[in-house]
Amino acid sequence: MELAIIILAAGQGTRMKSALPKVLHPIGGRPMLAHVVSVAESLSPQDVYIVYGHGGEAVKSRFSEANLHWCLQDQQLGTGHAVMQALPGIDDDATVLVLYGDVPLTRQQTLHKLLAGLGSNAISLLTVALDDPSGYGRIVRSESGKVQRIVEQKDASEAQKAITEGNTGILVARACDLKGWLKQVGNNNAQSEYYLTDCIGMAVDEGRHVNAEICQDPYEVMGINDKQQLAAMERAHQRRQAEVLMTNGVTLIDPARIDIRGTLTAGRDVTIDVNVVFEGNVELGDNVYVGPNCVIKDARIAAGSQIKSHCVIEQAIVGESAIIGPYARLRPDAKLGKEVHVGNFVEIKKSYIDDYSKVNHLSYIGDTEIGKRVNIGAGTITCNYDGANKHKTIIGDDAFIGSDTQLVAPVTVGKGATIGAGSTITRDAPDNELTLSRSKQVSKQGWQRPQKDRKG
Ligand code: UD1
Ligand code: CA
To answer: Under a CB-based contact definition with an 8 Å cutoff, are residues 196 and 82 in contact?
Structure first.
């Protein structure tokens, strides 16, 4: 069976009140249209057609899938007219699935069922039972329950408005049938639009049967027109992801307070505390704990590690059984070995810290290689930037860097070396020796502190 998918996305989206085209507004960190394209691609169609309107160039440039075809709909004359923009390129015997660029949370299994429901029917239609169906086209059924036609809200009688079964807009039909019906669709209705929904009545008039699948989860078929709906759909999407994680055994202290804007994979016995934001691709190994209020982006945290509260981690790799934070920042290309400790107010960028080393307090480590079992004292700064270029600091195994040290790169501290506290190290420090660069301490006898004129 040849499958063609048409995604309607020509609507203006004026109610978003934004310069960004509606279908590019993100859900879970990805444009809403990308969610629709993903579920479309998951059905392995031959071709996907996106019907776009003016200003769609910005949309087009965000998508690189090879089998996407872009069809310009010059004027938005209705959903039927929109589908017609894509039909000429589609083989008569192909099955056509119509989706919407602003309906991002439809599940693959729902669409499988809808496709399977076409069979010898004229149309397979996805409907939804709604508490408040206002705004939706209503599904008119015969006394025996057969779908007769769809009436748009604006064209509906009071009796029809009382129908609570709504049209989702998502449907499946054969290309040749759609071509035939849409040729005859007029725009003599309340909105002077060419309605795709008129095809249902036409099929029934031809004596054919329309299959309806009722979607149980309203979020699967909900469209986004404004920022309230965008936020509601974002929550629905996050809730779904939280449910998948919990089903897979992850402990979420509060499933309403986790945000995944990308993909999170987690091992066994992972615990995620409240208000954590994951972005891009994040992997958490077995027994990882992520504390409250962390932001973790494109990172890998190996088994047994603890990320304490308020850490910001981006493009970093954390080895096994490490302890990070609270208040640590791992920047791109920070790579930590096993059992490394990185404490509060420590920033690490483009550096490798080998097993069992510790940087526990108030430090900046950039463009640095640190060996095993190194202790970096509080307030250590690698001075990696001379105003023009970045330079490297190398610290050997078992070195001990005293507190408040500046390591002016390029510089190497040898294995087992000790740097005295308060040093500014500008030349290499040899293995196993004490190096320090502090001026001698003096005490002045009889020195008097200046006095203010005393009041009163
Ligand atoms: C449509 C359905 C209605 C259904 C509702 C579900 C029709 C006539 N009505 O109504 O039965 O309950 O969706 O949300 O189909 N679009 C274009 N080009 C156009 C017009 C629309 O691309 O010329 C796209 C829009 O970008 C949007 C979608 O089609 O993604 C639906 O359009 P919209 O105007 O929101 O349709 P509704 O009147 O809500
Ligand atoms: Ca709509």
So the answer is: yes
